[in-house]
From TrEMBL:
PROSITE patterns: TPR. The lineage of its organism: Bacteria, Bacillati, Actinomycetota, Actinomycetes, Kitasatosporales. TPR repeats lie at residues 167-200. The keyword Zinc does not apply. It comes from Streptomyces echinoruber. PANTHER family: HTH-TYPE TRANSCRIPTIONAL REGULATOR RV0890C-RELATED, REGULATOR-RELATED. Keywords: TPR repeat. This is Tetratricopeptide repeat protein. The keyword Phosphoprotein does not apply.
Amino acid sequence: MYGKAFAPEYQGALTTLSVNSSLADVLAEGTKRLREAERSGRLDEAARCGLAVAEAHRRLGQVRDADRVWKASYRAARQAGDTAAMAWALWSGGTLARQRGAFPLAWRLLGLAAELGERGGDVVVRGYSLAGLAETGRIQGDYEAVGRLHEQLLVEARRRGEARHTVWALEGIAQMHRNTGDYDKAYALFEEAAEIAERAEDRRGYAWALRGLADIVSVRDQDTGRALELLSRAEEICRAMNLSSALAYNHKMRGNVLYRAGRYTEARDLYQMALEEFRAMSEPRGEALARLGLAKSLARLGRDRAETAAELADLARTLERSGLRHAREMVARAQEEFGLTMEAVR
């Protein structure tokens, strides 16, 4: 049903790159090809190669470089009159905006990318852009608004036999079920995503699916050993492919698993590691989640009650401003866990 996974963001002279190519290799080859296209004045090729370079920078956590390159890719595509390439550049920019926590900008850029993709006749970039909108809403906790879009995109991906996009949609829907407490449904979806990703040789998607399975195994089954084993398998993939963001989220999840098992010192160390990784790549959502885990671990290890209350209150204000509703609810649960409701803090 599904063919081998491919990376549609690797275009022009870079179509030979694999979905599993190391990001360091993508960046090196993409930069080389981009410079060649610029020297020869081939604007369309510069736009296409620039897309891969921007995405490599983004996934490596090199935010400023990613921002500079996707904009240059868009300008080249516009000068070349290549509507589809313009859409891809906007998709990259919108994805970066979401990663940076700039959600209004992400909505705007991804919406424009979907429109241009449709106008340019590129169904893939249209689908990726709509998927980006769905993921933005999901991350913000607006499940009702984007749940149907996730399901619609899953149907389209299955119909076209696009393994990578199917895996993404399954993982997004699974995460919503997990966050609303339907662990059995979430597990089944993560398991299907893992199976499809493995058969299609989509190692990135497989690593994310393993992380999701580890979370369910930990929270539902309380099987710490198996959860850690799944995360170790995922970490090997993240390191092999230089997946900086995925690796940081893996470390944060490992902290979650250890915290649930009462291994608070180990959890503290993992949360601290993840926090430093997220800060290095300017990823505010991951930073907030790592801060939350660290605050909870420190509280369990005897941190002063007033310091814990102040940390959680500051984190709650930060998440309120950023519009991350689900993460804000997690902070509220932590405040209840330690008897630090707003009334108690006063």
